[in-house]
């Protein structure tokens, strides 16, 4: 080793591994111009001769044409480290390229490492987590202002004026700016989040999305739920005081759906006429998605189901009673309800995964389904409102809804047929198979889906409440149970005064409160079905309607004096709906609930044909759902 080399290395604390050029990152010189290749090779040869041989500096300079001071300078640049602690290496020899990490940057990094209190505060300011004392928190970072505060922190920590950065003409400003830019670039997600609210959403929703370890691999491992407001007006019939039936427009109709991520199958859906969907609607949708699907009784001429159209349950027997592993929802108010969380975790036994609102990346499949529903069906109706007020498709939607008399009951039929066809339409995302075919392929490969037990399956639709049996032997009041201001009893309970004071568990179907099932808490003995007293046990109604009726209880509407509170409440609301559009939608939803809770048949008993003939479906070129089964009067012709 030459004396010059020995003295130079002795003045620095480089390790043997850092001096080993074989460990440095290589440079592909084929990407450089011929002139830059020649200059880089001369510099590289000079460094290699100095570090790996005993050649003198004079000989190296004569051989490579690199001056002696430049050799020392290049070695220091090559052996500098970046913020990640890695040697810059041969990258420092590239001609005409300013390296982001220079020796002075390392000095900045050394100060922040030596004085962690300075480093933590400066880094937090650069990422917008905190503000400089005396300054407001801003979206933009002014490096000169942060640099002045950095100098104040250095003085406060007793750094000498003869030390870096005070010994430089610009007091390390340029070096600080390079460090700040590099640090911000290395924390790109935080930088995006600092700039705007939309950036925060984007940074959050793209975090970990591309991680292949998190992607589901078999059906029902992950399902997505979301709600979508239908962009169209429809009509409903209401009875005027004179007895005449009049048509009124209805808007803000919501469709809620559950989709399987792996197979793209729509497992179930629910249509609600509430102004905003609530926790009851969410639970109803999830319950519908677990129950077997039945085709609706179609009243529209020309509207038909295809041979293999439908839903996995019951078209694919292996999907009946099958469990979900994960349920993805957005962070909407209804989805965050305690009842929804308990239903998902305790009844469905699934992971409850909330995500950000209005971010389709986390629930891309259900969002794309809604967009396809709008493009293929809703936006082609004459009463569509389009996707925004300036959409060219929006052509007098209210007038067209009344003119063509597109009823909400017909909307339910059309959507049911369309979704059944969607499940039987080839999809590019699953290798041009239909969602039902993809589901069946997984099952035929020997996949065993986890199932609910019979008891768990029966309890899916039931909510549980604890109540006490009340009564009075002395005054002759027979035993009964009070639930939501209504008495429930049965022949067995009325004849069992010894049960007065006992606690019971009520299993309640929230969609039909005419009856409940009771169990004694101390023994688990089933007391059987308890019926609501009076007209409460005759008129179909759900839990929310029951609460709404009692909330309206006042001097002008005395619930206890009414022979039929449910019917009286609906009539009063219907009278108000002639002038109030919001009330009109609520009335329509109440009538829908009443209809679904009644004992009248609502679906045809249709035996599905060719359940196992999915493989015979021909792949069609168009990716749109076939609408040939829809009446032409419901579809707007567009050039």
Q: How many domains, as an integer?
A: 5
Largest sheet: 6 strands, antiparallel, barrel
Q: Give the overall average pLDDT.
A: 80
Strand residues, percent: 5-15%
Estimated radius of gyration: 36 Å
- At CATH level 3, the topology of the largest domain is Nucleotidyltransferase, domain 5
The secondary structure category is alpha+beta
Strand order of the largest sheet: 8-9-10-13-12-11
Extended strand count: 13
Which consecutive residue ranges, at least 5 long each, have pLDDT under 50? 100-106, 207-213, 238-242, 605-627, 633-639
CATH architecture of the largest domain: 2-Layer Sandwich
Distance between the termini: 85 Å
SSE inventory with pairings:
Layout: H1 3-10, H2 16-19, H3 34-52, H4 57-64, H5 68-78, H6 103-114, H7 116-126, H8 143-156, H9 173-186, H10 188-195, H11 197-205, E1 222-229, E2 234-239, E3 245-250, E4 254-260, E5 266-272, H12 279-290, H13 312-315, E6 326-330, H14 338-347, E7 351-355, H15 364-376, H16 397-404, H17 408-422, H18 435-444, H19 454-458, E8 463-472, E9 477-483, E10 486-489, H20 491-494, E11 503-508, E12 515-520, E13 526-532, H21 543-551, H22 565-576, H23 581-597
Parallel strand pairs: 1-6, 6-7
Antiparallel strand pairs: 1-4, 2-3, 4-5, 8-9, 8-11, 9-10, 10-13, 11-12, 12-13
Helix pairs in contact: 3-4, 6-7, 6-9, 7-8, 10-11, 22-23
